[in-house]
Amino acid sequence: MPHIHQLLPVLLAATAHSGELTLEMKPFFITHSLDATVLPDTTTPIRLDAEAWNAFEIVSIAAHGSVVKKGDTLIVFETEQIDKNLADAQQAIATATLELAQAEFDLATLEKTVPEKLARLERAAADAAEELEHFNKTSRKSAEETAAFELKRREQMLASYKEELKQLVKMYEADDITEETEEIILQNQRDTVKAGEFALRMEILNHKRTLGVSLPRQLTTLTQTRDDTALSFDKGKKNLPRSLELAKLEVAVLKNSLERSGKNIAELEKDRSLFEIKAPAEGIFYHGAIQEGKWITGELVKTLEPGGAAPVEKTFATFIPVTAKPLLHAFPDQATARVLEVGAEGSAVLPGREDIAIPVSLKSIAATPAPDLTIPATFSATWPEKLSPTAGQSLQIRVVSHHNEKVITVPIKALAFGPKGWMVEVKLADGKTKKYPVTRGRSDAENTEITAGLEAGQVVIVP
Fold first, then answer.
1. Residues 266 and 125 in one domain
2. End-to-end alpha-carbon separation of the chain, Å?
3. 257/264 Cα distance (integer angstroms)
4. Most buried residue, 21, 168, 183, 316, by most Cβ within 10 Å?
5. What is the pLDDT of residues 341-397, one digit of tens each?
6. What's the domain count of the chain?
7. Domain end residue (candidates: 323, 358, 389)
8. Residue 312: inside a domain, yes or no?
9. Tens of pLDDT along 256-276?
10. Domain check: are 159 and 135 in the same one?
């Protein structure tokens, strides 16, 4: 297949004339003009896929188009704030670790003491209930009987003391003369009677207090103790297991918090490695992204300077290795793409060097349109020695999608469509005209092939 730069003279000669046109067999070519951009087939996108950090202030950045060697620094970011956050995160982890250890110790203590406390509360409640029951059934009656017995005994003792005094008085009065010793004995007995009377009064008071105050008060105390211990046991059955569950939840929360803190510091440490980007090999450093066959710059590249900020999770620069091969990326419309086939050949020129034709060949074309409804296509090129392609350069491609060395063509405006299909008005020998049905072939912007229905030498009427 001849290249487009070899076919241009023929194409320029194949122009249609208005009025009458004598048909002849001649070459017919369909060409397409495409805007293309030189881009490498291999690139390394520069982007910050940070997991936790989003502030990347540029300290230094290599110039756009810099030729770099492997290991050369491309970009350096300000690290003061992330280093401070890392230090704070490490301290927080140390604190959280201690808090977790304390919470686990407290939980272990509760797991041991809660059953013991519940057992003690249960025993206390049972003991208090038993004490009250024993008081009501035994102790109260015993105390009342003891009080009555003591009162009766005091009364009997006093009566005995009085009787002894009475007998002594009778005995000593019979002698008519009371001796000194007898007087002493009588006085001692009188004192004993007085003491007995006093003891009886005290016993009467004690008896009244025992029956009226002490025993009712003891009943009240024992009843309150029973109720209080029962309530404490009931609360303990609810609150102590609840405190144990709360302690378990606290341990779980602290574990989760520590795990999140550990994950956070791991993410920060990983993000910290992004704060200096070096060249992975020998190549060229570009500002902007190369995506889907396009070099994207826009407002983004304006921030790529010291003091500016680089975006996160978005390609903002590109490294092109020296081993990358240049390809031409074009985006024909769908109608053009429909007639292009892989292997189609053409020619490209650089603006300003139209004198140099660069042979190109269609390498690939997408099956589905891009979001802008164009069809991505790539061309390989045979570059002249005097030209060194640079990524981002614009070219103009002309490619042949169809050629026929001998075919009849007519201007498109000579065709008319009717009930019998496409028709062409032909001038007859007598000067009259007649419409002939024809079969169309491929068309360019002005002319179309006629594959059946006309012959060379016939004259066609062109409106």
1. yes
2. 35
3. 10
4. 316
5. 898 889 999 888 888 899 999 999 999 998 889 999 999 999 888 778 888 889 999
6. 2
7. 323
8. yes
9. 999 999 999 999 999 999 999
10. yes
User: Chain-centre distance of CA 193, in angstroms?
Assistant: 100
Q: Is the Cβ–Cβ distance between 91 and 85 less than 8 Å?
A: no
Q: What Å distances lie between residue 113 and 106, 247, 400, CA to CA? A: 10, 13, 92
Length of the chain: 463
How is residue 351 written in tokens?
């603006």
Assign 3-class secondary structure to the chain.
CCCHHHHHHHHHHCCCCCEEEECCCEEEEEEEEEEEEEEECCCEEECCCCCCCCCCEEEEECCCCEEECCCCEEEEECCHHHHHHHHHHHHHHHHHHHHHHHHHHHHHHHHHHHHHHHHHHHHHHHHHHHHHHHHHHHHHHHHHHHHHHHHHHHHHHHHHHHHHHHHHHHHHHCCCCCCHHHHHHHHHHHHHHHHHHHHHHHHHHHHHHHHHHHHHHHHHHHHHHHHHHHHHHHHHHHHHHHHHHHHHHHHHHHHHHHHHHHHHHHHHHHHHHHHEEECCCCEEEEECEEECCEEECHHHHHHCCCCCECCCCCCCEEEEECCCCEEEEECCCHHHHHHCCCCCEEEEEECCEEEEEEEEEEEEECCCCCCCCCCCEEEEECCCCCCCCCCCCEEEEEEEEEEEEEEEEEEHHHEEEECCEEEEEEECCCCCEEEEECEEEEECCCEEEEEECCCCCCEEEEC
Is 115 a domain residue?
Answer: yes
Q: What is the structure's pLDDT at 178?
A: 57
Residues 102 and 190 in one domain: yes
pLDDT digits (tens, 9 = 90+) for 1-16: 444 444 433 333 334 4
> Considering the entire predicted model, what is its pTM?
0.63
Is 209 in the same domain as 304? Answer: no
pLDDT of amino acid 2: 45
Q: Does residue 379 lie in a domain region?
A: no
Q: What is the pLDDT of residue 372?
A: 87
Q: Are residues 318 and 180 in the same domain?
A: no
The pLDDT, as a whole number, for residue 420 is: 85
pLDDT exceeds 80 at position 418: yes
Cα–Cα dist 71/53, whole Å: 24
For residue 224, give its domain range: 82-270
